[in-house]
Design goal:
The protein is mainly α. Helices cover 58% and strands 0% of the residues.
Length: 102
């Protein structure tokens, strides 16, 4: 397995600390996708800005539809996409995974 150095949440400072705190506020923890970008604070900040615009910004797609798309894309890419109670149907990942498996 590959090893990528990251900034631990307890040792985070500046932009990284701010983005980690926002992540904890959104989902209760710091996901690895945030940690993986921690050595490039500017990339972390801009990636999160883009993510928030895509998932929460104005769109013809509902929030649930965006979560479903993210789940399907992650499934196709063999990535784990964990949904948290963010105003969408809890358990959507397991429901989508069952549908994709058939």
């Amino acid at each position: 397995m590959a090893f990528i150095k990251t900034v631990d949440p307890q040792g985070a400072e500046g932009i990284v600390k701010q983005e980690y705190e926002k992540g904890i506020h959104r989902s209760g923890r710091v996901f690895n996708i945030l940690k993986i970008m921690s050595l490039s604070p500017a990339a972390l900040k801009e990636s999160m800005r883009m993510y928030l615009a895509i998932m929460y910004g104005e769109s013809e797609l509902s929030r649930a539809q965006r979560e479903m798309l993210a789940t399907v894309v992650s499934q196709v890419n063999h990535c784990y996409y964990e949904l948290k109670p963010t105003g969408t149907t809890s358990g959507m990942k397991s429901k989508m995974s069952k549908r994709l498996a058939t």
